[in-house]
Amino acid sequence: MEAVKAVKAMKATLVCTALAAATLAGCTGMHADVHTATPAAALAGERTYTFARLPMQEARADHAQFETVLRDELAKQGFADTTERPAHYVLSVGYETRPAQIGVGASDCASGNCSPQTHASIPLFGARVYRHTLTLRFFERVSGREVYKVSAASTDRDADPLHATPALIRSALVQFPFGAPTDWRVKLRPNPEGSLPDVVSVTPLQR
């Protein structure tokens, strides 16, 4: 009897671990992992910025929607997107969605960057899992020096990057700028009253 219970417990643990890798509700819930690569004290200048857009971003029909969400969240942190006078910062934005690299115990956002894990990409219980990443880089306009970089990553079963970016933006900017340590987990829940999810908790990740 004890052996049967142990087997059942092990199976439940393995299932929950797999679901956690896909951030599915029922085990760990909805979350994103955040990594910062520059000191928080670096953002000491006037909080004005302008976007640095890549040609591929200019060509994307959904990029304007993405920038609108990001601009609104930055405004809550006192940042203004200015076009009438030179901005203090140039903001580079990178985001992508790709099939997830699933590995037991692997964090969504690897220390140092949010690059994919090296494990094989596999469907989870017959459904493809997707990995979403967002990286924000602030450069001083005059010197060209990068002064702050923050990345956020999450996984789910939705291939549409526009569905994932609100949660990633909220996670990357929930503490702005993030201080030490460099790695954090942001737990979220859907907000039926708004387009961005609510933040449940922000806790440091142990490495």
List the helices and strands and how they pair.
Layout: H1 2-21, E1 30-36, E2 48-52, H2 55-59, H3 63-76, E3 80-81, E4 89-99, E5 130-140, E6 146-156, H4 161-173, E7 183-189, E8 198-204
Number of beta-strand segments: 8
Order of adjacent strands in the largest pleated sheet? 3-2-4-5-6-1-7-8
Helix percent reads 25-40%
Percent in strands: 25-35%
SS class: alpha+beta
**pLDDT < 50 stretches:** 1-28, 104-122
Average pLDDT taken over every residue: 76
The main pleated sheet reads as: 8 strands, mixed
Radius of gyration: 19 Å
Distance between the termini: 38 Å
Shape estimate: globular
State the helix count. 4
The topology string of helices and strands comes to HEEHHEEEEHEE
Q: What do you see in this structure?
A:
This protein has 207 residues and is an alpha+beta fold. The protein is built from four helices and eight strands, in the order αββααββββαββ. An eight-stranded mixed sheet has the order 3-2-4-5-6-1-7-8, with helices on one face. The longest helix has 20 residues, at 2-21. The protein is globular and about 45 Å long. The chain starts with a helix and ends with a strand.
Please provide a brief summary of the model.
The chain is an alpha+beta fold. The chain is built from 4 helices and 8 strands.
Which features characterize this protein?
207 residues, alpha+beta, 4 helices, disordered N terminus
